[in-house]
Write a structure and sequence with these properties.
Length: about 55
């Protein structure tokens, strides 16, 4: 399984501008929007329900 994962890896080269943009987002991500918040709530509800059934 691990070899399959490694075969699918790709190297992405970023410009300096894009690299700086990415680092800023990783260090200080924007707040979640409404769609992401709704997805997180659905995920938490699904996992809570699954844990209760176990």
């Amino acid at each position: 399984m691990m070899s399959l994962f490694i075969e699918d890896e790709r190297v992405i080269q970023l410009s300096e501008r894009d690299w700086v943009w990415l680092l800023k987002r990783l260090e200080n991500p924007p707040p979640p929007n409404a769609k992401l918040q709704a997805a997180m709530e659905r995920y938490q509800q699904a996992n809570t329900t699954r844990q209760i059934q176990l």
